[in-house]
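Q: Could you fold this chain for me?
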Amino acid sequence: MNRGWAAGKAIVTMATIAVAIILLMTPSVQSFLWDTFSSPFRPKYPEEATFTLERTITIDPNGGTINRFTIDMPEPMNLIENDRRLQVVHSVTYSVDVVREVRYGHDWMVWTSDLPFSDRRTITATYEVTSRTVTWDIDAAASGSVSDIPAELVDRYVHDQWVMAPGHPDIVARSQAIVGDEVNVYTILKSIYDWMRDNVEYSTQTFSSGPQDAVETLELGAGDCDDQAALFCSLARAAGVPAWLQLGALYDGSRRAWGGHAWLQAYVPLNEGGGENVVIDPVNGEFMVWRPNRLVEYTDDGDPEHLLDYYSIYNASVNRGTNTVLYDEYVGLTYEESGWMISLDVMMAADIMSNDRFLAPSRT
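A: Sure. Below is the predicted structure, expressed as structure tokens.
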């Protein structure tokens, strides 16, 4: 009788172990265990941040006289992707009278003067904004292929555009070397991201008054944030994937400072239908992540003249011999993060820099 009881107990134990093994093999349990044991090692970011930011632009005649000038720049706007609010702009105010106008679907500020002056002139724009952490839970299995991309996006973004050169032979060759015959959009973007992280260095040394041409960044193997974003867009476009610049500012908590910044968005079609405009920041090691420490002022619409308009914020008529100086800086007045923290997937944020990288001061 004891032997029978022992045998029955052994059978129950083996059955329990078998059930446990089966449960451990289910995706939901594996996901729970992964979240539980990996969570302490994942980068964590606040669910949202609310901040007040000043952008101050000062014109210094530098001993000469400015006859007239125009400064124009886009105003930050709400940013919503598939009903998810990445950025909510509560207010925008200016220290002087400006004219607001709508250009290509975006609100712009225009500040002009036709009276000669030789002293400094300053305008301050103050933004009150809430930004939320957003991650895109997309992998190769969820992603569609290049053929699933809407023709409208292909027409708008898969072409040469100012410093982006997807049609250049060097860009085409490098894109093919990275991507090969791959058509899965997620895999294409991740392959380009990984290649750039391994082969393109961050550098703020620039030899031009604006961002480098993508071909130059490829040849140098180095560039700042907008240089690298333009190269990424070029490589993605050469593979048939729409990608475009986003421009604004980034807050570095370790230095408690804001700086101008550029990153990119790309379109990923989904197997279940529809698609997502994901965010990628090559120089800060963020793949399909939007952290709340950023402000977007302008999203590229595919038109080279519109993008150039963003970079060319200042036009003036000056007396001969005058070397006008333009100061453009971001100053944080308040910055408050929520108490709730979000763990980012290790793959999404494994390379995030301890100090965020900013844009070289190349906008004039």
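A (continued): The first strand starts at residue 44 and ends at 46.
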